[in-house]
Amino acid sequence: MRAKQLFRTKEEHVLYLGDWVFHVGPTFIETPFGTETKDADLHFYGERLTEALEHEVDVTPLSNWELYRLEPGKLENYLAESNCLIISDVEAKCFHLYPSFFDRARRENKVVTFPDRLTAIKQWINDGGGMMMLGGWLSFSGVQAKSGWGRSTLQEVLPVECLLVEDLVESSAGFTAEVVMPDHPVVKGLPWDKFPPIFGYNETTEKVNGDVLVRVKETGHPLVVAGEYGKGRVFTYMSDPAPHWGINFELWEGYDAFWLQALNWVKKRK
Asked: Which residues does the UniProt record annotate as the domain Putative glutamine amidotransferase (predicted)?
């Protein structure tokens, strides 16, 4: 599945970066002289979230490698057409480089730079854009601190502070949610008493300019935080909207309404 919206059917548009995986295998070792790898699959983990959002908007999903390969200026074009940007399970480094950077022949031995994509996103939010950053192994600080968002240009925009070490908090028993601002438009009226256990989240610390809407009941860590930057709004959900952390979350009866309320809030509909 790839960027399935070739023709817009709705007036508003969301750019969804991340939550794809290319799975290769299984691999069979039948002899000391070789192996056989059978089957390959490209899978979009964000399909459930996309379905929820497409009640109201069109969504263009791009994988991490598609983002990395976007020619300079293309991301800015996407943003100009979008009401909301979602970043989920994407390392900050995917925004910094462009493959032709390494192509000396195309550079003709000249000094070269490219527009900084994170600076462009920051300016887009400052001018009124709405962003959602969602959790996962490659979000916030991430596994082995590989995600790098705490040292990125967008750290200033986020309503939470990223750790500078690995931030994954996981449990096979699951974590539950505790709403602390029940009247906020993002969380109001949802069946939080039926929120299913999630298998993990990214630990962050709250900022004074961020509103913690929901906490992890067992630890007190922020789970849903909303904030503003310039004329824009930023929403963070520190767990995954998709498997594996969110495999139960996708079944929550409030799933669709939660994401639509978050979307409407970042678009300043509420």
From this structure: 47-267
Q: Into how many domains does the chain fold?
A: 1
pTM of the complete model: 0.92
Cα–Cα distance for residue pair 247/3, rounded to 1 Å: 23
State which residues form the domain around 227. 13-23+37-266
Each residue's pLDDT tens digit, 67-114: 999 988 999 999 999 999 999 999 999 998 777 766 666 666 777 777
Q: What CATH number is attached to the domain comprising 189?
A: 3.40.50.880
